[in-house]
Amino acid sequence: xxxxxxxxxxxxxxxxxxxxxxxxxxxxxxxxxxxxxxxxxxxxxxxxxxxxxxxxxxxxxxxxxxxxxxxxxxxxxxxxxxxxxxxxxxxxxxxxxxxxxxxxxxxxxxxxxxxxxxxxxxxxxxxxxxxxxxxxxxxxxxxxxxxxxxxxxxxxxxxxxxxxxxxxxxxxxxxxxxxxxxxxxxxxxxxxxxxxxxxxxxxxxxxxxxxxxxxxxxxxxxxxxxxxxxxxxxxxxxxxxxxxxxxxxxxxxxxxxxxxxxxxxxxxxxxxxxxxxxx
Length: 279
Hints:
The structure is a single chain. This protein has 279 residues and is of the alpha+beta class. The chain has 3 domains: 20-67, Roll (Membrane-bound Lytic Murein Transglycosylase D, Chain A); 73-211, L,D-transpeptidase catalytic domain-like; 215-277, no CATH class. Helix content is 19%, strand content 29%. Helix 1 packs across helix 2. The longest helix has 10 residues, at 192-201. Mean pLDDT is 90; it is low at 1-12.
């Protein structure tokens, strides 16, 4: 999932992950499942390809995938998770070693933010179902489970990275279409192959920083700036036109971006990095 974008002036940016590429549809795929795999809003994917949001895809069909994301500017190496962005980055010595789309907590059960570290690394974990989730199962009239052994029915998938915060962790999944959604009980969920890659990149004690930044801006040259805006799903603010303008000012681009472009990006919430030429 990691890539470097060649900018219009020939420069490359180490503040970018992802790329623009073609994808050939295989049987059973939908805009939602492809968006989940690559970290793209299904509505953005549809618009990029001139499709309706409920369009049925056919095997062999080609789609353009633009899953460029700005890497958050943080001071500490380790794992960085930006909740509105639904992306996880692994940083070392200022370089991005890996970037992965994730599922995060639903608004009624948000993923906590703050500074944590990895306390547990486990392969083929058993899920000890928290009491809170057992109560939710009972309220929904479902079978109440206390433990789920390793296997295809285990919602933790094949890897568990426990954090220094209660029962919150980073793990795989048996429902890949849920990735890039706000749907978990606070945990951070990855595709099975992605969590295996992440597992190999981190150790017990690796810092994990979870942030909430709907707007990201990166100044990449004197003439260009990258802007990425996500929905404020947790209703914490930070995704308005004024917020985009403030972020541009912090990047040294105050007044250098057309007001119409700022409004378009702020209201569109496309969720991917957009390259703008400065005045």
